[in-house]
Design a protein that fits this description.
By secondary structure, this protein is an alpha/beta fold. The chain has one domain: Vaccinia Virus protein VP39 (Rossmann fold), CATH 3.40.50. The protein is built from seven helices and eleven strands. The chain has a seven-stranded mixed β-sheet with strand order 5-4-3-6-9-11-10. A two-stranded antiparallel sheet has the order 1-2. A two-stranded parallel ribbon has the order 7-8. Strand 4, helix 4 and strand 5 form a beta-alpha-beta unit. The N and C termini lie far apart (53 Å). The structure holds S-adenosylmethionine. S-adenosylmethionine binds next to helix 3 and strand 4.
Length: 232
Amino acid sequence: MSQNSENYPEEYKNWSLQFFGRKFVVTPNVLIPRLETECLIKRARTFIQKEQIKTVIDIGSGSWIIGTCIADIVDEVIFIDISSEALLITEKNFTENFPEKKSRYIQSDLLSQLSPADFSSLRGPILFLTNLPYIRDEDWKNMSKDTHFEPKIALFGGEKTGFELYEKLFEQFEILCMLESLDSLYCIFEFGFDQRKIAEETLKKYKDWNYSFFPDYAGIERFWEISFEQNP
Ligand SMILES: C[S@@+](CC[C@H](N)C(=O)[O-])C[C@H]1O[C@@H](n2cnc3c(N)ncnc32)[C@H](O)[C@@H]1O
């Protein structure tokens, strides 16, 4: 696939994109942010202010849009991505734009590189924000040609349903919820437009968690707000 192709995305040609009123650097190592992710960011901003969240963890941070668009209202942003190339772009741009803000950059498969001590050291309730890859591997062939230039690791979530990475993340959250030092844990997630049923099925296993769905601009419920409190 050549960069001279008529389908090569403009954002990669220009190395930049406007999102949520900001300019972002995008290279072919990161997903081109999608408009609907604004819905997650707007909800997160309201939530952070209401619950006085100090620390946000952006899992699968990619082009760093999510953590960046809430950075002005928290003390610390932790960016996690499995891709070292994506994290390099994040670190360079975030530290340039927010030189005063506390931030960390962790290359990790979901939360696997974080220890209980890492979480115990964080201030106040933690909010996880994530837009993990959720497309089924075999749906590659049905996708638009411009999408073929985006990194596969940013798009595909697994063979069977595409929801596998979220399932794995919930297993990690379940272990995290056992930590005595953790009073509460909040998450806001984005998933596929046709995955609400599987999302609900997945959560049935986690009886102590409260959740609600909320819609994108087209009215499709594809975002989730989840909370866990030790002593509700
Ligand atoms: C759909 S993109 C989202 C990027 C950005 N947060 C956004 O909303 O536009 C998913 C991101 O998750 C990362 N990723 C994929 N698998 C991961 C894993 N197992 N652990 C951590 N990050 C992962 C990819 O590298 C990619 O940057």
